[in-house]
Amino acid sequence: MVEYVQWFFMALITLAGAALSGFHFARGERRACFFWALVAISFIFMVIEDAGDPRHIVAGYASDLLGWDNRYVEGTFFMAMGLPVVYAFLRYWKTPFYYPQTRLYLIVGAALYGMVATASILRHQADFYRRLGGRLSPLLFDDNVPGFFLMDFMVEESIELMAATIFFCGVLVYWRKTITSPTHGISYQGRWRK
């Protein structure tokens, strides 16, 4: 159930990013247009990956047929999904941070996604998930939940849901400030200026 709610929020971020990109395109605001288009691209990749699990499918084939370590395949997937939004933040950072109210939401949401992706890639390294979950399970569930299950299905998915929700809150604040109050929106002199 948690995963379905994540997909819902990621889909909303994708749609809102595309709509914001179109809004800024119509106003001739190039930087904001590109920023939100890149956010939408990253989040549609995330929806596809989370819902269809192509990362695990490709990693399984790469491991069986080519002998590749799953971590490298999964790391490549995460880099490909995150690259558009990371580039957007580095190149067009003034757009999301134009409103101080959006900064904390977007930074915390993105940081949580980065943390979860890193943990997911390293989950089998020295039995990281099993060992950490094995320590948490007695404290939280009287040792009734297996360690790996606790980390992979409960902790990781819950943090992903928090990341999506927090990031979406940042998008909503930006939307409210820009779309519903366009007189307070980002203004650039002329069309398609940097």
Can you offer a commentary on this structure?
This protein has 194 residues and is an all-alpha fold. The protein has one domain. It is 78% helix and 0% strand. The chain contains seven helices and no strands. The chain has helices at residues 2-26, 30-52, 54-66, 70-91, 100-121, 128-141, 147-178. α1 packs parallel to α7 and α6 packs across α7. The relative contact order is 0.14. The model is unreliable at 188-194 (pLDDT under 50).
Structure summary:
This protein has 194 residues and is an all-alpha fold. The protein has helices at residues 2-26, 30-52, 54-66, 70-91, 100-121, 128-141, 147-178. The protein has one domain (2-183).
Largest sheet: none
**Total strands:** 0
Along the chain, the helix and strand elements come as HHHHHHH
Instruction: Name the helicity range.
Output: over 70%
Total domain units: 1
The geometry reads as: globular
Give the topology.
Elements: H1 2-26, H2 30-52, H3 54-66, H4 70-91, H5 100-121, H6 128-141, H7 147-178
